[in-house]
Amino acid sequence: MGPCPTCAMGLTLIEAAKYENRLEHLAVLRTFSEGELLARLPFMNIAGSGLFYAAEQELPSVGFRAVNEGYTQSYGVVDQRAEAVHLFGGDVDVDRSIVDLMGPEARASQIEMKVRSMRLTLESTVINGDSSANPRAFDGLSKRLQPGDAMAIDNAGGAGVGGAPLDFDQLDALIDSVNSYGGSKVLVMSKAMRRQLNALARANHGGVYQARTDSYGMTVHRYQDCDILTVDRDAQGIEVMGYDEAGGTSSIYCCTFGDQGVTGLQGPFQGRYGISVRDLGEVPDAPVFRTRVDWYVGFALLHPRAAGRLFNITTAGA
Question: At the topology level of CATH, where does 8-55+79-314 sit?
Answer without folding.
Answer: phage-related protein like fold (3.90.1690)
